[in-house]
Design brief:
The protein folds into 2 domains: about 90 residues, Helicase, Ruva Protein, domain 3 (Orthogonal Bundle), CATH 1.10.8; about 100 residues, Bacteriophage T4, Gp59, helicase assembly protein, C-terminal domain (Annexin V, domain 1, Orthogonal Bundle). With about 200 residues, it is mainly α. The protein has 12 helices and no strands. Helix 1 crosses helix 4, helix 6 packs across helix 7 and helix 7 packs parallel to helix 12. Helices cover about 65% and strands about 0% of the residues.
Length: about 200
């Protein structure tokens, strides 16, 4: 059964608000927004939501699709429709999360003298620079933040206002959607940094 276009739009709006607003938490509010069908039907891009509703007919599927797009800064539904590759890459990374994380951690361990060096702040923490350079994935940064809480210190220390606010928000907001076994992933870190 197909998802109604307005429902696909409502999920989109919830994920958009989640990633762009400091106060809205989509999972906490069960992906509910104040969207009205009357305003949706006036939108010029409504046919995109109809197409997505046919393709991803379950709530979790379309939510994951939108997340995969927003973390890659594809925020307009029309842009999402032209690059479905983001979703495929996201699925591969998240389905093999421990493998991806271990590879990223091993890469990082080769570049620094100690685990603490990952979070050393010059303009940005080393680990965030590596993410922004495309050397490690966002999930690794999120997991390390959940394990260490390094973002609190970074947010207090960093005064740069061009890149940092958006990168910081993306990391913090994506945390709600990255689920992992804390003990297993902490062991991966320990193993990589005690060689």
């Amino acid at each position: 059964m197909n998802m109604e276009p307005f429902e696909a739009y409502s999920y989109y709006l919830a994920i958009k608000l989640h990633f762009e607003s400091d106060s809205y938490d989509a999972p906490k509010y069960n992906f509910k927004t104040s969207a009205k069908p009357s305003s949706f039907w006036k939108r010029k891009d409504k046919y995109h939501f109809a197409k997505l509703g046919r393709k991803y007919d379950k709530g979790p599927d379309i939510i994951n699709y939108y997340i995969s797009q927003f973390i890659e800064d594809r925020k307009w539904v029309g842009d999402m429709m032209t690059d479905e590759d983001n979703y495929t890459k996201w699925q591969k990374r998240t389905q093999a999360l421990s493998y991806t994380f271990e590879n990223d951690i091993n890469t990082l361990a080769e570049q620094v003298d100690s685990f603490e060096d990952l979070f050393a702040i010059e303009t940005h923490p080393f680990i965030v620079k590596e993410y922004m350079s495309g050397n490690i994935c966002l999930e690794t940064v999120v997991i390390l933040n959940k394990l260490t809480g390094f973002m609190k210190a970074a947010d207090r220390t960093i005064t740069e206002t061009i890149l940092w606010p958006d990168v910081s928000r993306k990391i913090r907001k994506y945390e709600s959607f990255v689920n992992f076994d804390r003990k297993k992933f902490a062991n991966i870190v320990t193993k990589s940094f005690t060689k």
